[in-house]
Please model this.
Amino acid sequence: MKSRKQRLKEYKAKEYIVHLLSELSNYILESHPSRMVISLHQEEDGLHLCLVDNCPRTEDELFAMRSALHPQARPELAEYYGAMEGSDLAGKARLNLIGWQVKDAQVARTANGTQIDLWMGGEKFCATQFTIPKKNDAPPPSGGPA
Model:
């Protein structure tokens, strides 16, 4: 039987995953794709979330997406968000509730649109359970020849 602490952690993880799916799918749907595919590979202490759509995007849009998935710390906001969320950064606080962090994130142009890959996990995250391309194996940001 699972302890109350374990059940709470699982509930928080599920809640966060649902929120993450909602936010990312809402962002994709703002571009009015005629197709969107969401794939979730979930393990005990991590996940791989992949979203693919058929909306072509400019390099500036792809750059903005990459930047959003790899946020920089904003020390000037740490006190404000720390008071709100109990941590130094809002996003970090939400992930810390379940003990997870972003392990890798990639945005790439596909033949017909855009693909977003996000890998998240905790201390026991095992990258071998997931297919995370090495940086030199990843497609170039523009989707064109290397």
Remarks:
- The chain has four helices and four strands.
- Residues 80-98, 137-146 have pLDDT under 50 and may be disordered.
